[in-house]
Amino acid sequence: MREKLARRDHKVTLMLLWTEYKAGHPDGYQYAQFTELYRRFKKMLCVVMRQHHRPGKKVFVDFCDGIALIDPVTGEKIATQIFVGALGASSYTFAYATLGQTLPEWLDRHVRMYQFFNGVAAITTPDNLRTGVKRPDRYDAKATEGYEELARRYGTCIMPARVRRPRDKACASYCLLCG
Q1: Phi-psi region for residue 33, left (φ > 0), alpha (ψ -120 to 50) or beta?
Q2: Tens of each residue's pLDDT in the chain, 179 residues
Q3: Which pLDDT does position 178 carry in this prediction?
Q4: Residues with Cβ within 8 Å of residue 143, at least 6 apart in sequence
Q5: Which residues, in sequence order, are CB contacts of 24 under 8 Å at separation 6+?
Q6: Range of the domain at 32
Q7: Tally of domains within the chain
Q8: Within a domain: residue 11?
Q9: What is the β-pairing status of strands 123-126 and 157-158?
Q10: pLDDT at 36
Q11: Do 79 and 166 sit in the same domain of this protein?
């Protein structure tokens, strides 16, 4: 029944669904119970818009927590960050572990990513990391000077993801490395 309900047209009423259900299951749920179960089922659905990316158009970049390194001399745990870049169309992923999120590391990881991909995407979509984005804004975001210079040099456009919208950069955020 769940597959049947999930594929239904939005113009179908609950009464029509229940009538069809009762025709196939005469001893099944009554209308009130059927509608309650349907409402619970509907809450479980995760409705999202699928994004279709043209090859070479976008690359999504972000940092995520990495594994801890152990200093062999002191035994101290050193936290790492993983720079992740993923192409929009294929989700082909570049990952590079680093010790921090400073601007030189951020820019170097981009250069290494472009070398790994053997090219540069038309649009680079970072998260709103302070290292790369001075002022996050949907329509007029400002990248840092070093990041803008890198974009000009490589011929890409920096378009940061919307603030608190992780699905804008899903390829990089939900890669296997970041969970």
Answers
A1: alpha
A2: 444 554 555 667 889 889 999 999 999 999 999 999 988 888 887 766 666 777 878 999 988 888 888 989 999 999 888 999 998 888 889 999 998 888 899 999 999 999 999 999 999 888 877 777 877 666 677 788 889 899 999 999 888 876 765 555 555 444 433 43
A3: 40
A4: 132, 133, 134, 151, 158, 160
A5: none
A6: 2-44
A7: 2
A8: yes
A9: parallel
A10: 92
A11: yes
Residue 142 resides in a domain: yes
* Per-residue H/E/C for 71-128: CCCCCCEECCEEEEEEECCCCCEEEEEECCCCHHHHHHHHHHHHHHHCCCCCEEEECC
**Same domain? 32 vs 86:** no
pTM (two decimals): 0.64
Q: Is residue 129 included in any domain, yes or no?
A: yes
Cα dihedral across residues 159, 164, 170, 174: positive or negative: positive
Residues 143 and 75 in one domain: yes
Tell me the one-letter amino acid at 136: P
Residue 178 lies in a domain: no
- H/E segment holding residue 58: strand 58-65
Both tokens assigned to 177: 């490395």
Residues 69 and 97 grouped into a single domain: yes
